[in-house]
Amino acid sequence: MRYKTLVLQKLEQADAIVNRLQFETNRGYTQDQLEVSIEQLKLQLEEIRSMVSIEHDSFEQQFR
Asked: How does pLDDT run across 26-64, given as a tens digit for each residue?
């Protein structure tokens, strides 16, 4: 259950970055400012991907 909570928190953080990107786009922020947010979103998604791949491996090993 702890794993699920961590992944959900990471997804909420990614959602907040997406909302910030929408806001920045609507307000006409510069391309450099948007790129910072995009890089943060990429990092957040990579963390989520890493967490999911690690959990999947440990889950499989439980049933071997």
From this structure: 999 999 999 999 999 999 999 999 888 876 556 556 656
Contact 48, 11 (CB under 8 A): yes
Pair of tokens at residue 62 = 């439980």
Q: For the stretch 31-43, what's the b/e string if a residue is b when 16 or more beta carbons lie within 10 angstroms of its beta carbon?
A: eeeeeebeebbee
List, in order, residues 6 or more apart from 60 with CB less than 8 Å away: none
The C-alpha atoms of residue 10 and residue 51 are separated, in whole angstroms, by 10
- Six-digit token pair at 50? 């890493």
